[in-house]
Structure formats: structure tokens, C-alpha cells
Amino acid sequence: MLGTGIIKGMAQTAKNFAESFRDPKYLTTVQYPEQRIPTKENNRNFPFLVHDGDNPIEGLRCVACHICEKECPPQCIYIEKDKTKKPDHVGKLQFQPLVFDIDISVCMSCQICVEVCPFDAIKMDTDFELSQTDRFAGLLVDKHQLAKSNDYYRKIHPTEAKAIDANRAAEVKKAKAKAAAKAKADAEKAKGAEVAATAQPEPTNSNPSA
Ligand code: SF4
Ligand code: SF4
Fold first, then answer.
1. Which residue's alpha carbon is nearest to atom 4 within ligand 2?
2. Using CB atoms within 10 A as the burial measure, which of 93, 122, 192, 197 is most buried?
């Protein structure tokens, strides 16, 4: 029957209102901002850049590959790649973004930038208290404002962050095993060349009259 949904909704609202005098669990709203409901893990608002270690800029995982910038539907990401490689949080040289801006007045929270990033360098934040009096410059956020630690990411999206930490640890382990195997192969090759050089017979004098 037309309007059944509305009647059911009104009945639920009336029930919650009446029961809330008896049991606070029926209170479906809180006195914001004094009271806050914890954000849900799958909540998302605007993106942020993940950094490892203590330095928010040196530790950025972003290597300024521009993939997210190209894929962002409303084109609200602007990146300039640094001209030289700089050490990351473990001292490994990598390219980093000299400029990384997101215009959050344009961002539509679609998460495409997160999905296309091959380095798990950009993730969706849950922070929503971003009102500004300046709707132009105030909503253009740079890499200093975007950089947030992996610990923060673990706090807001624990399940997702745990899976990514495990993947990254497995990749590091694989890379170390590969590097160790290569170093071993190189050492064996060098040893083989050394043995071959020492086993080489001394050149003999072929001229009997000499
Ligand atoms: S969430 Fe979507 S709109 Fe916002 S920066 Fe990422 S790709 Fe662009
Ligand atoms: S956030 Fe990811 S996809 Fe975007 S530029 Fe950085 S590394 Fe590339």
C-alpha cells in the first residue's frame, strides 16, 4: 500500500521517542559537538597522504607518479614532482612530490585516487570538521596538511591498515630475499672467475731456440 514505509518510519520514531525516557539506548542523536559518535571504520571523507616514520614529509610513501592526478574524475589533485631523489624514512632514495595539493572544495570523495595508487600512499580520511571562512585558498590543502602517519591510518581504518601492513611486510621480505639471492649469485660468479683465473696455465715459450 502506498505510504506504508512512511507510516512504519513514523511508528519507529514515535517508539524511539517514548522509549528514550526509559532507556538511553533509544536516543538516536547526541548533543554534538559536546558529545560525539565514534566514526565507523568504513566512513570516508577526503583523502590524506600516508607517511611512515616520524618525519611527515621525508616519510611520505608518495613517489609523485601522477597516477592519481590523471585518474581523479574532477581533476582536483595537483602534483609537481621533485627534480632530485631524496632519502625516505629508511634512507632509500626516491622521488617525492615537491607540490601535492588537493582542492577539497571540488573533491567528491570517490576514492578512485586511493584505488589506483600502487604504493598505498593515499587513503581516505574520516575527518569531517573542515569548515573554512575562506572557501578558495582555505579548501586547497597542501602536502603538509595532507600528511598523516600510518599510526593514524591504523586508528581510523584498522582492518584495512592491518592488511596493507601485512602486504608491505611480505613485499619487503620478498625484496630482501631477492637481493640476498642476487648477492649470493654475484659472489659465486666472482669466486668462479677467480678460480678460473688461477687455474689458467702459465704461458710457455714456443720458440725452442730462445
Ligand atoms: S576522492 Fe576522488 S575526487 Fe577526491 S581526490 Fe580522490 S579521485 Fe579525486
Ligand atoms: S599518491 Fe600514489 S598514485 Fe598519487 S602520485 Fe603519489 S604514489 Fe602516485
1. 68
2. 122
Amino acid (one-letter) located at 3:
G
Dump pLDDT digits (tens) for 19-38. 999 998 898 888 999 998 88
CATH of the domain at 74: 3.30.70.3270
Q: Is residue 51 part of a domain?
A: yes
Task: List the Cα angle 118/70/168 in 5-degree steps.
Answer: 10
Q: Take atom 2 of ligand 1 and give the residue whose Cα is closest.
A: 110
Tens of pLDDT, residue by residue over 93-129, are 999 999 999 999 999 999 999 999 999 999 999 999 9
Tell me how long the chain is: 210
Into how many domains does the chain fold? 1
**Cell numbers found for residue 59:** 616519510
What's at 26, amino acid-wise? Y
Ligand 2 centroid from CA 199, angstroms: 54
Residue with CA nearest ligand 1 atom 6: 113
pTM: 0.81
